[in-house]
Amino acid sequence: MYNDNEYTLSPKSVVYDQFPVWKSNALGSPGEANTFWYKTADEGKTIPSLVISGDDDGMMYMADPVMTDGSWNFGEYTVEKIYQSGEFNPADQSPVSAGTLGKHLVLDLDGDGCNEVVVANYHNKQVVILEQEKGAGCR
Ligand SMILES: [Ca+2]
């Protein structure tokens, strides 16, 4: 909304509200969210999914838009966990035990037209590539 030359955004909808809560200020979730298209050919042409880092919960989430009769009810997504860095224990409030993830990247690494997600996994000291299942096409 424009008001006196000031642009403000107000919450329109909540995509997901089941992220864990810690008592420690050193831990938090979620982290970064990015657009994700299963097929590179769809980039910018369809409503994207969202790939979301759970940050300190060690999970990666995929939020897919819910389409009804070809149209999208703004902000409506189904969300599922697509990766877990390590065992998550919300009762353990120690920052050193969190399954923390770093930044992720979405791109088609092998040029087959299907995007992958590259995840920096602090917890296991790894960089992991999440590839869509073979034989399923791009989803
Ligand atoms: Ca690919």
Describe it.
By secondary structure, the protein is mainly beta. It has one domain (21-130). It contains no helices and nine strands. The protein has a four-stranded antiparallel beta sheet, with no helix packed on it. A three-stranded antiparallel beta sheet has the order 7-8-9, with no helix packed on it. A two-stranded antiparallel sheet has the order 1-2. Strand 4 and strand 5 form a beta hairpin. The protein is globular. The termini are far apart. It binds calcium ion. The site of calcium ion has 6 residues, from loops.
Please outline what is shown here.
By secondary structure, this protein is mainly β.
Count of folded domains: 1
Task: Give the fraction of residues assigned to helices.
Answer: under 10%
Identify the overall geometry: globular
Structure classification:
mainly beta
Task: Give the averaged pLDDT, no decimals.
Answer: 87
H-E string: EEEEEEEEE
What Rg, in angstroms, do the CA atoms define?
17 Å
Descriptive keywords:
139 residues; mainly beta; three-stranded antiparallel beta sheet; four-stranded antiparallel beta sheet
Blueprint (SSEs and pairs):
Elements: E1 2-3, E2 6-7, E3 33-36, E4 49-53, E5 59-68, E6 71-84, E7 101-107, E8 116-121, E9 126-130
The structure holds calcium ion.
